[in-house]
Design a protein that fits this description.
Number of strands: 12
Order of helices and strands: EHHEHHHHEHEHEHEHHEEEHEHEHEHH
Largest sheet: 4 strands, parallel
Distance between the termini: 45 Å
Keywords: Signal
Protein name: Vitamin B12 transport system substrate-binding protein
Organism: Paraglaciecola chathamensis S18K6
Helix content: 25-40%
Radius of gyration: 21 Å
Shape: elongated
CATH architecture of the largest domain: 3-Layer(aba) Sandwich
CATH superfamily of the largest domain: Nitrogenase molybdenum iron protein domain
GO biological process, one term: cellular response to iron ion
Length: about 375
């Protein structure tokens, strides 16, 4: 038996359930699919792709304009000491932004003018990163779910993942809009350009590119020093986690992104990168889609040793699967079902790494348990 579900309804429920802009981005991509099918019985652990159209879009961040590099070099000065103008940083994200005439136009301004820009930030992760580089007070409007830090809750909201209030944005007359390339509605972004609104894109697609984002925002707002400090601290923490878990034994881990229908992560998906960082082995890592639908039986036959169930604000999620019912799988049998904070792990910001570090520690505790085949003492 095959079950079909209305994708549009699932899209809306997915966002309402998680309050996570990242998950809303996934839902927005899935909105292109007419239906998704889940097989009750699968002969192997290879999941059915949710969308053949969205896999390249999610993996590559859209078209060439949205692709970004590795962001390894963080130490070069990014401000001319004589003119106060932004100097090019050597990351692929910055090179991408500099190819845009609008970015070049703005960063040609002196620091004082850039620090007074009136900015609309169209995603929670952009808002959070702008506050981190010290430019939070420059934000005049944002979208729903931009709730960190606390001051972000006071910012005017002019839309959500599904629709932007174009007229309101135009009325606010921002100096620049920072849009989320794969998270905001493409037709709305096109309308903004028709109104001659200046739009710059944010689109981190790898863990290392969070540092690139910080550098880009620092250049844009004349806060290069703070941005370089934040980017360097982030990269140092990321490299530390890579070093700590790179040689650890793999441990079979299932990531429950969404429960109804059951959906997981694969390939270049943001959470898949986090699993790889922790040395976790995802049975569905090489699925045809970055966010595949899977059948319950497909998960059970993999005998996951760990199950990751992100929850909102670390609270229990009513609709999440109760894996304890299947005591034959090691994760349920041994109590290795973990619930990281969805807002933290699903937003492309520095704060994400703290939650991922905790998730890695939990996975490593399970790893030690299985290696020793005895309970780990508290």
């Amino acid at each position: 038996m095959v079950i079909s579900w209305p994708t549009r309804l699932t899209t809306l429920c997915l966002c309402a359930f998680t309050f996570s802009a990242f998950t809303c981005n996934i839902a927005h991509a899935l909105d292109q699919v007419a239906t998704s099918e889940i097989a009750d019985i699968a002969e192997s652990a290879t999941p059915r792709a949710a969308s053949t159209e969205s896999q390249g879009h999610q993996a590559n961040g859209g078209d060439d304009e949205g692709r970004q590099g590795n962001g390894e070099r963080l130490s070069e000065k990014s401000e001319d000491q004589h003119t106060g103008q932004a100097k090019p940083a050597k990351s692929a994200t910055i090179r991408l932004a500099e190819s845009d005439a609008i970015f070049q136009e703005i960063t040609a301004l002196n620091k004082e003018k850039r620090q007074k820009l009136r900015i609309i930030a169209l995603a929670p992760h952009i808002v959070e990163s702008m506050f981190e580089v010290g430019a939070g007070q420059q934000i005049i409007a944002t979208t729903a779910h931009a709730d960190y830090p606390e001051a972000a809750k006071d910012i005017l909201q002019i839309g959500n993942y599904a629709r932007l209030q174009i007229e309101k944005i135009v009325q606010l007359q921002p100096d620049v809009v920072i849009a989320w390339k794969t998270g905001n509605p493409g037709d709305d972004l096109s309308r903004l350009k028709k109104y001659k609104v200046k739009v710059i894109y944010s689109n981190p697609t790898t863990l290392s590119q969070v540092a690139d984002e910080l550098l880009m925002l620092g250049q844009l707002t004349g806060r290069e020093t703070a941005a370089e400090q934040a980017a360097t601290a982030y990269t140092t923490q990321l490299n530390s986690l890579k070093t700590r878990y790179a040689q650890q034994a793999p441990i079979r881990t299932f990531y429950e992104l969404w429960s109804r229908p059951l959906r997981t992560v694969a390939n270049n998906a943001w959470p898949q990168q986090q699993l790889a960082l922790c040395g976790a082995q995802n049975p569905f890592a090489h699925a045809n889609d970055d966010y595949p639908s899977v059948g319950l039986e497909q998960v059970l036959v993999t005998l996951p040793q760990v199950i990751i169930q992100p929850t909102q604000h670390a609270a229990d999620t009513p609709d999440a699967l109760n894996w304890a019912k299947w005591q034959h799988i090691p994760a349920a049998q041994n109590g290795f079902i973990f619930h990281p904070n969805a807002d933290k792990v699903h937003r492309m910001t520095s704060r994400m790494l703290d939650e991922v570090a905790l998730m890695c520690e939990q996975i490593d505790k399970a790893r030690q348990f299985y290696q020793a085949d005895t309970p780990v003492s508290e």
